[in-house]
Model the fold of this input.
Amino acid sequence: MNQDYIVPDNWSVIEEGFEPAHVRSSESLFSLGNGAMGQRANFEEDYSGSTFQGSYIAGVYYPDKTKVGWWKNGYPEYFAKVLNAPNWIGIQIEIDGENLDLKTCKSVANFRRELNMKEGWYKRSFQAVLPNDVEIQVNVLRFLSLEWNEVGAIRYQIRPLNKSVNVTWKPYVDSGIENKDTNWEEKFWKVDAIKQYKNAGFIQSHTLKTNFEVVTFMDNQVFLDGENLNLQPAAVTQEESKVQLSYSVSVGQDQTVVLQKFGGYVTSMNHAVENLFEAAQNAIDRANQLGFETLLSNQIEDWDRIWQMSDITIEGDVKAQQGIRFNIFHLNQTYSGKDSRLNIGPKGFTGEKYGGSTYWDTEAYCIPFYMATKDQNVARNLLAYRYNQLEKAIENAEKLGFSNGAALYPMVTMNGEECHNEWEITFEEIHRNGAIAFAIFNYTRYTEDESYIPEKGLEVLIGIARFWHQRATFSTHKNKYVILGVTGPNEYENNVNNNWYTNYIAKWCIDYTVQQIENVAQKFGSDYTRIMNKAKLSQAEISEWKKVADNMYFPYSEEHGVFLQQDGFLDKELVSVANLDKAQRPINQKWSWDRILRSPYIKQADTLQGFYFFEDHFTREELKKHFDFYEPFTVHESSLSPCVHSIQAAVLDRMEQAYTFYLRTSRLDLDDYNKEVHEGLHITSMAGTWMSIVEGFGGMRVKNGTLSFDPKIPAEWQSYSFKVNFRNRIFKVQVSQSGTEIFVDGDQNIAIQLNGESFEAKALLNI
Amino acid sequence: MNQDYIVPDNWSVIEEGFEPAHVRSSESLFSLGNGAMGQRANFEEDYSGSTFQGSYIAGVYYPDKTKVGWWKNGYPEYFAKVLNAPNWIGIQIEIDGENLDLKTCKSVANFRRELNMKEGWYKRSFQAVLPNDVEIQVNVLRFLSLEWNEVGAIRYQIRPLNKSVNVTWKPYVDSGIENKDTNWEEKFWKVDAIKQYKNAGFIQSHTLKTNFEVVTFMDNQVFLDGENLNLQPAAVTQEESKVQLSYSVSVGQDQTVVLQKFGGYVTSMNHAVENLFEAAQNAIDRANQLGFETLLSNQIEDWDRIWQMSDITIEGDVKAQQGIRFNIFHLNQTYSGKDSRLNIGPKGFTGEKYGGSTYWDTEAYCIPFYMATKDQNVARNLLAYRYNQLEKAIENAEKLGFSNGAALYPMVTMNGEECHNEWEITFEEIHRNGAIAFAIFNYTRYTEDESYIPEKGLEVLIGIARFWHQRATFSTHKNKYVILGVTGPNEYENNVNNNWYTNYIAKWCIDYTVQQIENVAQKFGSDYTRIMNKAKLSQAEISEWKKVADNMYFPYSEEHGVFLQQDGFLDKELVSVANLDKAQRPINQKWSWDRILRSPYIKQADTLQGFYFFEDHFTREELKKHFDFYEPFTVHESSLSPCVHSIQAAVLDRMEQAYTFYLRTSRLDLDDYNKEVHEGLHITSMAGTWMSIVEGFGGMRVKNGTLSFDPKIPAEWQSYSFKVNFRNRIFKVQVSQSGTEIFVDGDQNIAIQLNGESFEAKALLNI
Done:
């Protein structure tokens, strides 16, 4: 771990003491989001120290012109960038004419941040002595309403401690923001109009190229010792891209003055452009009608409902408890499942690195979490997102020379178009197609929703099967089909031949698609006819697919009894990570790319990812052999790595190792394992953390329609519990050092197994 | 071929008729250079049609900030760009107030360009009717003095054909130029001072970052019907980065008015910065003293001297004759060998694509040409260029994780630093190190200069041997040393394992270095001690090198009886180029990169490059097998490809194929085979053209100190002849359909073979 300043607490993320070097890290960790918008935990008041100002609106992006050194045919012209959005939280504050800025204060004491995950709010408090020797106590509370997701609220409280002062509040909305992550240092926003009315300020601006129209708004009230002063702004400043109000209040020593600010966004994704100002005013009116306290208590209730279903409790290990709740909290802040146009960006609302909102992370890591802790429509919406982008995936494959409806989903996307531009990833990391098919299988297996495949999924599967059929080539030398020139999940290998994972999932995709075609033919005749006609798919073509699937080559080492990650893996210098000089780690920061590529080191589960997806295709002995062969070469320099290894270590009864991996995945950002938390959080891997408890320690599996558990518990824990929604029944699994209890709501006539034995459900207990 | 508008001629490149679509192509083909500066064949007068204005100064470059999509550790921070330099050829011309611009003329007739390669000048003539109906005859002669290489001369002649007119000449010098090839669209030049004195104009400007100071100058004289009017400028315009003079002359119908313009550059590479204006004035004074005609006749004499030695004659095939002279002419325009700081840029003075001046092309393709047609010091200077950059090569290797004096020469460089930034090339195309060692061997073998290795070469060899020793790794699986993750000469493969060519030349480098260490130890004791101490090289280390060389792995196919280009080559779909749909060609313009990579198609000789370098390590039968296996997969999409294949086809007595390859290499630019001549010429491959005659058809080899020839002649030719300087004796080889004659100057007691028989040299004949 690289930092440990976060105070362990069961329900909150807490920072104590003001340390400027932690500001950007904490801005990430204390981020707020409500599925529709979010922002880093930037200070509301001015801060002249090092900071990374970031506000984000779900689904609003900018197609930045691709930057490459050397253009390759097939590169996308644009890279969909996550957009830093106008800032509505800003409040400049003058105390007796002195600007409040923690960087310039004579002293800052009792600085404390708390992100209360249980109730969904963020609080900051401190005492500061300003350059003019005024001493003040500050408390700031901020939250983004889950219920009214266009609105956020700030209550900024100041109490002068050593004298009576004049406080000038200057709340503002600013659209003059620039992306941290931009290819050409261009501005992405253009201001259309600025309005000001009573205590409110509005800026209408649109994104260049994509023309998302957004009205960013604020409304302000000033209170003294709890009483609304009903002030009107003493001054209004409108600049090119900023509107700022000003309120001055005389505040006696030990009196408390409060600026209450509501703010947020209304966008053309959800309103007609001509109604945006009205929609913004409506949002303000609603917030004012409800009032800060009611909005807050609703917020607490809404978060309580989320936790009712998705909480995981851990007793006896507060850091582990804090870690899992931190992960679950941010997942829920990032994606609510309400809007099928949205997806789960790798940094959520906490940063803008990577760009794009959708990676294979969604299918491989996130779907299990949303599937088990939300209504199953949420997972279905995530699948439908890919169905809605099928045509673009077919176009994408055509750009790369494929035909006949073969679909290659993009590595990174915002709207279905590829927006990544490294040939070794964009063109070669094609296993992503496999995860998208696997998610359809996984969803169907888990939910028993038989309608998705005939309605939507089968068309996606056919496009994917066609891709694999065309992408594999026949090696006369091997007398097998081979898949040349790929990058597997282990991105520390590029352009390799016969990556076992890719070959395996390619074969599986074809087999599964053929099976589903037969199933739909039998059970959903009219869907079958519609799909076969639309796809112009013949039995002859299916036979060609099968030839590839039935004769796929898998690299294997007789000597080691393992499948090889790719052809030639054994030619490497097989020095384990344990024997690698620590000064060389992390290798992605210390080594040139060629050195990484020719090393045996594995960024994240690759062959083992296949053993995770297809666990029941292999024996426990086989898993053990492969784990023992590959894990020692694994550097876990991807956030997606520890979770899969934690699950497999648990399967292999290596609880100490499983626990170490668990801590690493659950506290990846809290403890900043990868030295990059200041850039934002690793949102998608947080779902992997959830899996490492539910599927790893809890041993949850679904086989042949039966839900089973094989619970284990780390020695460090007294107990843990989690809930899953399985086929619209809720199960609570309570595991302690002395045994496991399972509770189920509603009808108990459902096949369940515990440790391989069929299970008799106890009465529903408080769920 | 993609164009055929160049008129076949033995000694000149000729274009007849004005075709705006050909302008940019002709600007490349008719380029002038004198080793120190050069420029594209841009019109002197204004031209509002499509044009690519380009002037270049040898050695003057700009380190453009590297542009990549995704930064990798080890990438160089800067890319040394060939710099588009200030323009001194420009002359705006007004005829009765109407600007002369071929794009706007009512008609253009008898347009003709001629690049007279024999005499080293470029002439353009045309008749035009201007928008104001004035009809004029124009003749322009331009050359860049070989003798006074800071000066060029233009004689611009106008004759009004249908009326008396007023001609206003507005010659200028312009430093406001921009690079065509720039990463960030920045300007590379900053103007320091502009001066004007009598008929001269000067601009002093410097390159940003590198601070090369350059004074670009001009001096003008106006003549009417041959008489110098001794005009002073009627007006002088000084703009921010331009100085322009103006002369007005009344010209009667059928009178001839001439603007004679001398211009050029003096730079801080050759003069103290404070003396630059004086140096420029001196250059002008000297040119004026000599006068245009004397400069021109000197030019003709100087080119005659070059041709005396380097000409290749071909009888019976004017296109072949024009092709080879075009190649030899541009090689001599690009690099004179006078200045060891310079090298042979891939586009010479004809364009700015690629950047950098030095590639492995110099060692692999260019050295044989300069070695055989120039004083041997020229080739020695080219070797010394790398010796002078040895420290940078060691630093470069250190950046990639190597140590102990291992040297990796850059893929592309201007000053010894790497300036390429694609990981698959920069970090992996390491075979370039082998060519640099091979050139030392080749030079020593050819010249018998025993001093270079003890003085300089051995240190380079040691750095290179150390690199290979460290770069190879031991495969316990193969029980051999392997070289993983490389790009071979065939850049249509990236990150492959055990590229045969790379492995072979790595082993050879070590063996050769060890042998040279022993040789220096025996013959040059003090050098030996100095070098071993400087390099801190022990016998123990040498033994470690030998282990690698003696146990190197070479991929081989028993089935085909050939070495494999790399591991796994046989897994590809081995469809020959002949069976590839023509609509898919060239694949580098039609296919995405992954598709190219997994195909069997070869950009340029790879395994066969090894058979070219090390021909005598293999039997003719082995060469035949490898040629027959690899050539059918070769798409020759590198300009460096046809020449090697031409040589090998000739060895294999496949004269028809050899001739086809010869035409392709010699007329690559004239006929624009690769559809890119408008970007500039392929200078380095021109040396390959020379090799394809001398080593291919002529069969020249040096073995054990003996010069041998095995001449063949294409059916299309009556005869051909070439000369080589071998160990300071000049041989002329005259091959006709009826036999071969060899002439030698000076002492004839030298071992020579013709067709395997020892040869009795005839008396020197006119050489």
